[in-house]
Amino acid sequence: MLKKNEAVNDGLVNGVMGTIVSIAEFLEGSLPNVIFINFDNERVGKNAKIQKTINGKRCVGLEPSIEDIPFKNGTRKQFPLQLAWACTVHKVQGLTVSQAVVDLNKCFTYGQAYVALSRVTTKEGLHILPIDDKKLGQKIYCDPDIIKGIKSMKHYLTENVEASSEETLVTIVYHNIQGLRAHKNDLVANSDCKDADYVCLTETWLESSSDHVYLPNYDFYHQPRSALYTPTNSVFKNLQAMGHGGVGVYVKTDSEYENCNFTVENLECMTFRIPTMNVLVATIYRTQKYQIGIFLKTFISFVNKLTELSNNIIVLGDFNQDILKGERSILDYMTSKGFQQLVEEATTEGGTLIDHVYVKGCSKVEVKGIPTYYSYHDAVSVMLKDSR
Known about the structure:
By secondary structure, the protein is α+β, with helices and mostly antiparallel strands. Helix content is 17%, strand content 29%. The protein contains eight helices and 20 strands. Strand 15 (279-285), helix 7 (292-309) and strand 16 form a beta-alpha-beta unit. The longest helix has 18 residues, at 292-309. The protein is elongated. InterPro entries: Endo/exonu/phosph_ase_sf (IPR036691), Endo/exonuclease/phosphatase (IPR005135), P-loop_NTPase (IPR027417), PIF1_helicase (IPR051055).
């Protein structure tokens, strides 16, 4: 075993192991000039200045290491090598070998067994000395803090649940994407999103109506922030000039979609109808810079138009009002109009519930949160069920 870092970038580091193949120019009473070593890891010493093929094996030439000893006014000259028929688990951390014989009987703390067992590249190369099966649980275990940490983490894969007797007719996923171009691949990889009939997005951050971000098997409809505000006063002028924002809808190619042609000025919104169900779906985004009193006046006008067109309505989006903290002006208004808000748990990393789903007239609707790793917001799945 090499006991000193000789050339870190070339793998000649403390702990690497090999076999001494030749000792060159060795005279009794003096150190040899070079010791040739065939290292277990073939990548070690590839750039060494002294190399030689001996008996078909590439060997690295190691010269004596020289160190000054100031307090003795002398010099130490030696080869930093040590016999190593075996070594501790601590010493082999970071090593990769093709074969290893592992003795787990003397493991005394968490993580040791993992380090020992994970050194080899194949299971065929791993040889474990006999150990009492009853002792395995005392030898192979992890840090208790890791177990606590894993239990506290969100589950990003959909868990298997009992199949519902009610058929899902339509699935709508809503998500504040915080940059569609940047997170398109994340959206594609999200199984909950790619199986949805409709994917409604806010904060797309696209700058014009002609911007198109292709998603396989979906049609895309979008409105940027700049197209949705009319600068009739300084408030709306400032909102129009702000960056980011924007709303969009992905519609699966075999799903029904009817664009609603009515618009309400100064509201970041897109509305469509699912014809056979006569359900209106509206996606809303309210930036925190949009004063709530002014927003409500516009929003009330919008909701009145929705209720004139259909009795079955879903309004979803990021309203930037945290229901968990008692911010209820939007919720109270929607409740007074016969809507029910279905999201019950926090939808952001900050523990706030600012992404709402308001439903009216749809008899059977289920909502669930979808954790995401790429946005401050979780997504929300809205499933319209047939209970017949």
